[in-house]
Amino acid sequence: MEEIIISVSQLNTYITRIFQAEELLYNISVKGEISGLKTPSKDMAFFDLKDENSLIHCVCFDENVFKFFKNGDSVVARGTPKFYSKGGRLDFNVNKITMFGQGELYLKFLQLKEQLNKEGLFDNKIKKNLPENVKRIGVITSETGAVVEDIINISKRRNPSVDIIIYPAKVQGIGAELEIVRGIEFFSDYNIDVIIIARGGGSFEDLNVFNSEIIARSAFKCPKPLVSAIGHETDFTILDFVADVRAPTPSAGAELVISDIKEKKSIFKHQCSRLNDLINSHFAKAKNQFQYKQNFFLNNMKNLTNEYKYYLSLKKAMLEKLNPNNILKSGYAKVSKYDIINNKECTITSVNQLVVGDIVDINFYDGKVKGEIK
Given strand 194-199, what is the order of strands in its sheet? Predict the structure, then answer.
């Protein structure tokens, strides 16, 4: 039998016709993980779709299809395999991608998230701060769930004086969106300090009401600080991005808003103790300074006194030397007589002041006697 030999082009053309003829391969959905994602242009993406054992090369020509996805995402890609005869390569031409297990719902979430983000609803610069001393809280949640009881218990434990106002609203199912919006509008004009929108955990579908655009826009317009406390820590909704504060759980939301009065008392007590220590330290410092200045003054006064004592002793010694009594004690005597002409007593310092017959007074240290000049 003669061997049949065909060209590469013939083989590839034959394979291409096989794929084109197989109608079951048109618009099929394939599950796998995105890998090696590349976007050489805005409207084109290349990536591999793989599972544990195999992979297939994919190409997509629509930005709106691939822009929400990244490497590692588990997806369902819909499209048609196409064998390019010229390059001898098989590609899976993708026209739609959805997250595996969530599908259209998750895609809508991503699209709305991107739209609202572009409009500035997530801007951190315009988010309101929580008040420091919250006295009244408005809570929008189901009145039958455990969330209400959790928030009330936390309030009683942390600060019993805080008032909790409950606005009962459906948090899942038909009509839930409008009830939550009416709750936001009610508390916007009510005497409360902060709003908490709360719901317990659930699946992505269960929490999807909080991905509502009308709830997001109502929360954005709300004049009161608004806390989103939806699901568990790993759950994220559109409301979380719009809210002024996102709490990982309803209980955490209550703890964020309600300050712990015991902690405040402890802080106040610590501050009082610190103030008392500062006062005592200041007083001790002032006392030390006073004692230092007092000792300095007393030492100076003592030194000054000693100087004056020494000065006075010198003056006293000098005066004692000049004291007439001390001179008289040495054996000297003071002679004086009464001057009749000038009517006063005068001291005799020379014999020339005396004449025979003068009566004189001779003064000794312990008395005086009279004598007559012969």
Answer: 163-168, 136-141, 194-199, 226-230, 245-247
Cβ–Cβ < 8 Å for 46, 56: no
**Does one domain contain both 43 and 144?**
no
pLDDT at 112: 93
Measured CA to CA, the distance from residue 89 to residue 5 in angstroms comes to 21
- Domain span at residue 81 reads 8-101
Query: Is 3 domain-assigned?
Result: no
Q: Which of the 8 DSSP states describes residue 23?
A: G
224-229-230-233 Cα dihedral, nearest 10 degrees: 140
Q: What pTM was computed for the model?
A: 0.55
> Which residue in 16, 5, 65, 19 sits closest to 39, CA to CA?
65
- With a CB cutoff of 8 Å and minimum separation 6, the contacts of 209 are 171, 172, 173, 176, 177, 180, 215
The rounded average pLDDT for each run of 10 residues, N- to C-terminus, in the chain (374 residues) is: 81 84 86 91 91 90 88 90 88 89 74 94 94 93 89 91 94 93 96 95 86 96 96 89 95 91 69 82 84 83 83 81 71 77 80 80 81 79
Q: Determine the pLDDT at residue 103.
A: 63
Q: Could you count the other beta carbons within 10 Å of the beta carbon of residue 313?
A: 10
Please choose, from the candidates 153, 30, 40, 130, the residue with its C-alpha nearest in 3D space to the C-alpha of residue 80: 30
Query: What is the tally of structural domains in the chain?
Result: 4
**Domain end residue (candidates: 199, 230, 259):** 259
